[in-house]
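Response to reviewer comment R2.3. The reviewers asked that we include at least one raw input/output pair. We reproduce the pair for MFS transporter here without editing.
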Amino acid sequence: MKRRTVLAAGSAAALGLAGTPAWAQAKIGGDVRFFCGFAPGGTADLLCRILADALKPEIGQNVIVETKTGASGFIANEAVANAVPDGRTIGLAAMAAMCVSPVMPGQKLPINVDTDLTPIANIAGVYNMLVFGKHMKIRIVPELIEEAKKNPGKLTYASAGNGTSQHLAGELFKKLAGVNLLHVPYRGGAPAIQDMVAGNCDMMFGNMPEFLGQIGGGGLIPIAFGSPRVSPMFPNLPLISQFLPGFEVVNWFAVFGSKGTPADIVDVWNKALRAAVAKPDMQKRFVDNGMDNVIGSPAELKATIAADRKKWAEVIQAAGIRAD
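Raw output as returned:
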């Protein structure tokens, strides 16, 4: 009787894991903590949660999102770095943490992002978009450059604060176009957008999702994409790079493991993430939320980090930006 019970239990367990790849079952031996350093309701938080749902059947374990906000995501990054490197702790880190903070003068970091985190895969890039307040008469990038050259320092661009991705994108535009735009930093993206809608600031180079509400309501005018590709939501908008070669801004999010995570576990996670983001439902949710699929290998993520860090270090140095 006892033997039949054990056999039945074993059969039930096998059925429960049906469809989960054996290579994942063998490596991930329990519930997974997925750290998110960004506030609930934002793009990064959404990405963590939809990834967690899509990953569960790929690894045969629960993937539990743990939110640890603060220090521009570094509280969560530090928690990942210090965890046991057994594959049961991963985290979502942003481009800024890996490529901007390490080269920002005056910035002190609690971890070394190159040695304390293990790259697993880049996941999603948020579309960068140039928008104007509706008070602006300009509607194309060449006219913007022409006007800025005629009236240096007159046109203004908003950001969510000093050293943010919006600030750096604006400085990259200035550098490549050879123009002078006045930077107006705000305490967050929402007040910056509100001031543009009110006509108090002219433009912003930012993440498309944060603009969608005001674009739909007519308060902001979409002008061009700063990302390498256009979003399916606005297929007829041009790329800024058509007019300024080299202008590419991607605020990407990637998954990292703890310091010292073994290569075979990294491979398990990379395969699971590729399978997760390939699902049609995930692809639709990416598009609907202004994200582009940029999944790749650990080596490709390392190359992206190196290239973006070099680019933003040059922009930071040229603009004389320092941490607040």
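The longest strand covers residues 117-133. Strands lie at 32-36, 63-67, 89-94, 117-133, 156-159, 182-185, 203-207, 220-225, 250-258, 291-293. Further pairs are available on request from the corresponding author.
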